[in-house]
Amino acid sequence: MTIQINKLKKLPNKFYQREVLKVARELLGKIFIRVYNGKKLAGIIVEVEAYDGSIDRAAHSFGGMTKRTEVMFAEGGLLYVYFTYGVHFCSNVVTGNKGEGTAVLLRGIEPIRNIDVMSINRFNKNNLTEKEKRNLTSGPAKITQAFNVGKEENGTDLTKNKIYILDYENISDSDIVITKRIGITRSVELPWRFYIKDNPYVSKK
DNA sequence: CCACGGATTGGCT
DNA sequence: GCCAATCCGTGGA
């Protein structure tokens, strides 16, 4: 069963310019596209986390706008890419209205198109082992490496043709798991992580 | 299987 | 100077 991505439509700005928890929840099942060397790298979004600077001390936007976080304070519909641990990039979908400082971190993607290109980007080889296949895009920094997303892509407009998200499945509530977020030390109690039940590309149970 | 620690930049206190 | 929205290799059970 090959997904006919050419027949699907981009999510419009209206989709992103809503409440962050709603957008996070509804991004599950949608198809992330990154055009790289003329090829469409594609995968289904299977795990996300919401961040909201107005009440969430784990959000980069908590405490106000800085040079680093200005994209996160823009109007919904841009990509916010940040660098961390001196090694990794992570990507977020900016949501809500201008000045809000809300975004959705992409944590898990199921690859569906141009997997060979992602394999080279991640492991510099093809013919991956089973373990390497599962490790291709099951984590926020694995995604940016596989899809070749870095600081150049910070601020990319998701309604244009470089990086965008296609409308696809609506996942039912019974197939979604909601948990606390991973890897943070503040506001840890907020249940703002969403993932598709039993999907192998979820970063962690 | 799990726990631990190193990598290595740059933002902010 | 401290430490991060992570990943991976190592070493032990």
Write the layout of secondary structure elements.
Layout: H1 13-16, H2 20-27, E1 31-36, E2 39-52, E3 79-84, E4 88-95, E5 102-113, H3 115-123, H4 130-134, H5 140-146, E6 163-166, E7 176-179, E8 193-196
The chain binds a DNA duplex (13 and 13 nucleotides) through residues 49, 51, 58-60, 66-68, 82-88, 90, 92, 105, 107, 135, 139-142, 181-185, 203.
Describe this structure in words.
The chain has about 200 residues and is an alpha+beta fold. It has one domain (about 5-195): Methylpurine-DNA glycosylase (MPG) (3-methyladenine DNA Glycosylase, Chain A, Roll). Helices cover about 15% and strands about 30% of the residues. It has helices at about 15, 20-25, 115-125, 130-135, 140-145; strands at about 30-35, 40-50, 80-85, 90-95, 100-115, 165, 175-180, 195. Strands 1, 2, 3, 4, 5, 6, 7 and 8 form an eight-stranded antiparallel β-sheet that branches. The protein is globular. The two termini are about 25 Å apart. The relative contact order is 0.24. It binds a DNA duplex (13 and 13 nucleotides) through strand 3, strand 4 and helix 5.
